[in-house]
Amino acid sequence: MQFLRFEKVKDGKYLKNYEITYQNKAGKEKIYEIVSRRELKSIEDVGGAPSGVSIIATMDDKLLLLHEFRMGVNQRIYNLCAGMLEEGESVTDCIVRELYEETGLRVKHIKKILPPSYAAVAISDTTTYIALVEAEGELADHSSDNEQIDAAFYSKEEVSRLLETEPFSSRAQLAAYFFTQN
Known about the structure:
Layout: E1 2-11, E2 16-23, E3 29-36, E4 52-59, E5 62-70, E6 75-79, E7 81-84, H1 91-103, E8 106-118, E9 127-136, E10 149-154, H2 156-165, H3 170-180
Parallel strand pairs: 4-9
Antiparallel strand pairs: 1-2, 2-3, 4-5, 4-7, 5-6, 5-10, 8-9
């Protein structure tokens, strides 16, 4: 593949749309569309700095799942606690803030922070850290008025049943599956 042109075609409040013009392996010119949460100046900026965190939280052998309405799919799904890094914020501070904002819980212990991975590789360069944490405290909603989130802890048996009947985000589905497998 040979990149020919890169241009921004829309500048939204949260997402920026870009077109990448390239020559495919058959020599034909093609256009590929992507979105980014960041301002990209050139093709070299694509896939750059991580933009957020996804949190796999447990407490007392139970998994934290959010049941939330997601506008992009027009339904409630099971998801992980997640959010965007704020300007100048460390990854650890983001994990602590997002867990508290969406659930009222505190981070008791960060077990592991995985390197950034792509969240939606077919359409976006967005990368997020995945953090595995032990949580403590009482559930309480501190989310914004623009979010509809119900947080709860689920046993392995409850998660197994949810996996068979309920819609999940892909990351939450994988985390939930492996949680049921120990």
